[in-house]
Backbone:
């Protein structure tokens, strides 16, 4: 037996020294090992088996496999991957495992009784451990050499062996073997992935996480992170995991994204519990996944849970602002930005400034604040960064435009209006390919009643977007209608209808109806409303699932009845108008528009008191309801001289809110005339006439 | 796949290759293509075919109603052979890229539209009528296959939020301008589903068009260059490549932005192993980020910002096996030798 063992031992020494190189293995060169490899394997094959069977019971001597394992490990350690591979190649894993199996079975129970330190050889390890580690190292070497498929196969054989070795009873694995298992479990999916075998990679990731490998926390976390990324980005069509033993109420992901989000959340939770270190990529992957599903609110919750000290607070605030803005909680978003843009924090962060500007530009009462942010952003943008500057100027224009609508003096208003156009123009000069910019400028021109310029912008916008954006068509039609070019406006509307799927035609049909009204073809208008009504009914009947994407660009049934009521009352078809109003009221009990229409009908029937009451109710519901203010003004004007100041008051108020309301100007002119201020009256009448020539069938406000 | 293909499907694939050769004209395709074992796979992976077809798709006057190549793509896809369909999907980047850029100029592109609508109809049929693609957001309060919840599950599991990843695909028989982005977006989703099987050149094509669609330069390359065609070698489609047109910026509503971004994310972070593709995808991701910034579209900003950041992060390496220090190794070796010696005696 001794001689056998010696032979086994000498295999290496001869192997290492045959080529008269220095005796130390450490200095052995790769090529030499390679050249002698095959020979050695052949010559020593018989020996190895003998020695294996005879030496093992005592667990004292090294057999052929173990020797190779050790030598290969040394080579690997030195970085001689290829040499290590050659040494490992000689190991017959299957044979080795078969031999080890009984010995392990014997050992396992005995180990339980004995303390571990009592092992006869303290320096050496269980032979199975050694060989399995060798195979793992072999797999790793193959992986490093780019032979991923082979690597995966080797790695898999390690895991299969471990599984078969411990199929009976709970694994009582020594630490070194556990380490090899951990590493193999981790390597296997990566090897498959690199080999391009994505299905196998998917399966081995799941197996790694769902089988009982007794992985340590860090290792498990790494696998979970990699698996999540694999699920998110690999585009592999994988079947969802199915477990026979599902706990009731347990969440089983149905698709890759669900599974990825689940894993990322689990990893984050582990971090909250202090079980793993922080890895910024986890949050980025989760951000990507949740944004993809349009779930910024869920994302915000997760970012809020991140402990302080990970993100600079201004960055966290900015990210949260993005999340809240995405779900429409503009006030919350802006509050975060206000904190972040505080002079003690990060007052000149361009992206935060731009976001704040954008949010402010959407709300009138915030427009002044927005102007400040925009100016700051523009000042701090590098002059070379034209794109950023253009964005700043664009949003500045939006804020100025909004602001011009709330200032009280004419002078300030016209000043702001010209500033608005100026910043749009500057912005376009820096970036002439941004259609949204052109659109906003078109609307601004239209609101300032510069219809030729507005028309140019509308056309340019349609060209830049290929007619694919509905609001472009509507702007064009409205501008044309404001120029009293109704037939052309209708052509534009029809062209838009052609380019729009039935489902989304609501706002266009309503526009068409209004164009028909403007052209005094009530019957066709009624026809258009009827089509619109049919569409809305169809939308209502279709399943609730489609509702979400229909909502944003469609016309409500209420608006249709309201429009019809206005149409009929304009024709003095009081009964029909009444029916339509009832329908409208059934859909929306308290509406300024309905009350206004009611008042109009009462007024037409000379029931002035009731009419006045209806108008007052209308603007009590909606404080800024211009038509009812105008109507009250007009009604009071007719009541006699002592009501003239009140009438004037209402009309001026209406004009403050909507300076381009021609009816308000008309009635204000009448008030002045009745009061004897002829020159003022003339001015008002003139304004009214001019505005009539540029009055769209629908307010431009409906566009944005 | 080669071994599974029935002789019938090989015949059809052969016929498809031959008709493609006829469409492209003499010499454009290698003769060996049709005679191979698996002509469909060759169509998918052959670089020469790809160059010829993509060159033609990019060429002036492509995509009109009587474009033979579009007819071929249409027929090949309608053959319902999965292998051939894959070969058609390989050209989705060029097809969608050229189409979207030209459609903005409102050119007549009935050929492209026929192919895209066929692909869309396929996607809609695959999904099922009126079915949106949804994602149920996990709630960690419920146990899952990957974790146990502390609290034992009650009789009723906590409510799950359901997010819509892709809304239902309504049937569309014609390409209306306002639905163009949705249709092309759905086609991109179809392509995305098969990305793992697509050759890298196809993905490179997509990244290039994505940069052009976004319409603004990446801050990385300050040189004012227009999306330089990465694969326009003067070969096959050489004549077309010489007069390369500038691909226009296109409207990118979320329904188009989202699938485009998913493809870019795959190219950037998926298991492709191509540095060239990663570089192109990083550029595309950055362009998409700046495009999203133009309108401050928050969800698009968040998603693309994460992609850009992830592309700059180092991937956590697989830990190397830990060995004890060098000296100890020697000791181990000595121990081994000593062991051998001791048994000798």
Residues:
């Amino acid at each position: 037996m001794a001689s056998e063992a010696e032979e086994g031992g000498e295999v290496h020494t001869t192997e290492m020294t045959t080529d008269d190189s220095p005796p130390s293995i450490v200095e052995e060169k790769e090529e030499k090992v390679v050249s002698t490899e095959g020979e050695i394997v052949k010559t020593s094959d018989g020996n190895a088996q003998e020695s294996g069977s005879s030496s093992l019971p005592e667990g004292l001597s090294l057999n052929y496999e173990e020797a190779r394992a050790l030598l290969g490990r040394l080579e690997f350690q030195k970085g001689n991957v290829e040499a290590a591979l050659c040494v490992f190649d000689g190991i017959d894993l299957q044979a080795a495992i078969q031999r080890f199996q009984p010995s392990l079975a014997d050992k396992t129970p005995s180990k339980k009784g004995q303390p571990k330190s009592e092992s006869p050889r303290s320096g050496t390890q269980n032979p199975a451990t050694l060989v399995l580690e060798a195979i793992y190292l072999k797999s790793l070497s193959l992986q490093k050499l780019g032979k991923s498929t082979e690597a995966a196969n080797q790695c898999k054989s390690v895991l299969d062996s471990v599984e078969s070795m411990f199929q009976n009873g709970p694994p009582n694995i020594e630490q070194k073997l556990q380490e090899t298992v951990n590493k193999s479990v981790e390597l296997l999916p990566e090897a498959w992935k690199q080999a391009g075998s994505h299905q196998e990679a998917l399966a081995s990731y799941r197996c790694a996480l769902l089988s009982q490998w007794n992985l340590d926390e860090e290792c498990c976390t790494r696998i979970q992170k990699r698996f999540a990324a694999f699920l998110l980005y690999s585009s592999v069509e994988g079947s969802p995991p199915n477990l026979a033993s599902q706990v009731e109420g347990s969440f089983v992901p149905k698709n890759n994204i669900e599974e990825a989000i689940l894993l990322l959340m689990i990893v984050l939770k582990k971090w909250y519990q202090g079980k793993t270190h922080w890895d910024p990529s986890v949050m980025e992957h989760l951000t990507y996944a949740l944004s993809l599903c349009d779930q910024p609110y869920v994302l915000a919750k997760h970012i809020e849970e991140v402990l302080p000290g990970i993100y600079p607070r201004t960055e966290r605030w900015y990210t949260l602002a993005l999340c809240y803005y995405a779900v429409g909680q503009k006030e919350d978003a802006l509050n975060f930005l206000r904190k972040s843009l505080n002079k003690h924090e990060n007052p000149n962060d361009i992206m935060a400034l731009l976001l704040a500007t954008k949010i402010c530009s959407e709300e009138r009462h915030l427009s002044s604040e927005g102007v400040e942010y925009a100016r700051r952003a523009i000042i701090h943008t590098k002059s070379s960064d034209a794109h950023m500057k253009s964005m700043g100027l664009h949003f500045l224009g939006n804020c100025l435009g909004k602001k011009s609508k709330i200032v009280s003096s004419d002078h300030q208003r016209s000043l702001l209006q010209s500033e608005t156009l100026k910043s749009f123009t500057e912005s376009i000069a820096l970036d002439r390919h941004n259609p949204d910019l052109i659109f906003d400028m078109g609307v601004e021109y239209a609101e300032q009643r510069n219809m030729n310029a507005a028309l140019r912008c509308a056309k340019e916008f349609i060209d830049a977007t290929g007619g694919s954006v509905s609001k472009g068509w509507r702007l064009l039609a409205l501008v044309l209608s404001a120029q009293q070019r109704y037939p052309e406006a209708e052509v534009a509307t029809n062209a838009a209808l052609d380019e729009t799927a039935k489902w989304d035609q609501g706002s266009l049909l309503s526009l068409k109806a209004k164009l028909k009204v403007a052209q005094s073809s009530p019957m066709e208008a009624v026809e258009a409303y009827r089509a619109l009504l049919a569409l809305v009914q169809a939308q209502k009947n279709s399943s609730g699932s489609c509702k979400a994407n229909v909502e944003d660009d469609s016309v409500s049934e209420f608006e249709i009845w309201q429009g019809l009521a206005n149409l009929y009352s304009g024709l003095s078809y009081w009964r029909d108008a009444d029916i339509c109003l009832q329908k409208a009221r059934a859909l929306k009990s308290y509406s300024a528009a309905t009350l206004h229409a009611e008042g109009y009908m009462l007024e037409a029937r000379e029931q002035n008191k009731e009419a006045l009451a209806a108008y007052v109710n209308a603007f009590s519901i909606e404080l800024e309801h211009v038509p009812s203010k105008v109507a009250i003004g007009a009604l009071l004007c007719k009541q006699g001289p002592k009501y003239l100041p009140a009438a004037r008051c209402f009309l001026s108020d209406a004009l403050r809110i909507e300076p381009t309301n021609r009816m308000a100007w008309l009635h204000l002119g009448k008030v002045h005339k009745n009061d004897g201020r002829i020159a003022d009256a003339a001015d008002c009448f003139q304004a009214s006439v001019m505005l009539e020539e540029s009055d769209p069938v629908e307010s431009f406000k409906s566009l944005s | 796949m080669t071994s599974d293909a029935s002789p019938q499907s090989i015949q059809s694939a052969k016929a498809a290759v031959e008709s493609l050769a006829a469409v492209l004209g003499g010499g454009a395709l290698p003769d060996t293509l049709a005679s191979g074992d698996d002509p469909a796979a060759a169509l998918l992976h052959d670089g020469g075919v790809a160059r010829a077809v993509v060159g033609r798709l990019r060429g002036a006057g492509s995509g009109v109603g009587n474009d033979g190549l579009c007819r071929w793509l249409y027929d090949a896809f309608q053959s319902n052979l999965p292998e051939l369909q894959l070969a058609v999907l390989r050209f989705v980047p060029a097809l969608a890229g050229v189409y979207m850029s030209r459609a903005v100029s409102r050119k007549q592109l009935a050929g492209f539209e026929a192919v895209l609508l066929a692909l869309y109809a396929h996607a809609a049929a695959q999904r099922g009528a009126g079915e949106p693609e949804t994602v149920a957001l996990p709630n960690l309060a419920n146990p899952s296959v990957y974790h146990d919840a502390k609290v034992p599950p009650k009789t009723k599991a906590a409510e799950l939020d359901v997010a819509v990843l892709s809304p239902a695909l309504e049937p569309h028989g014609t390409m209306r301008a306002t639905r163009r982005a949705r249709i092309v977006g759905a086609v991109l989703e179809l392509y995305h589903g098969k990305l793992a099987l697509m050759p890298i050149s196809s993905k490179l094509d997509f990244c290039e068009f994505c940069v052009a669609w976004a319409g603004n330069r990446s801050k990385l390359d300050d040189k004012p260059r227009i999306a330089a065609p990465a694969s326009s070698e003067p070969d096959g489609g050489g004549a077309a490549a010489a007069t390369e047109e500038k691909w226009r910026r296109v409207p990118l509503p979320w329904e188009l932005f989202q699938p485009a971004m998913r493809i870019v994310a795959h190219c950037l972070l998926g298991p492709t192993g191509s540095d060239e593709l990663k570089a192109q995808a990083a550029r595309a991701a950055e362009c998409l980020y700046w495009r999203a910034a133009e309108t401050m579209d928050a969800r698009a900003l968040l998603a693309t910002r994460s992609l850009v950041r992830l592309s700059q992060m180092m991937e956590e390496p697989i830990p190397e096996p830990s060995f004890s220090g060098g000296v100890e190794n020697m000791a181990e070796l000595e121990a081994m030798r000593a062991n051998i010696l001791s048994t000798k005696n």
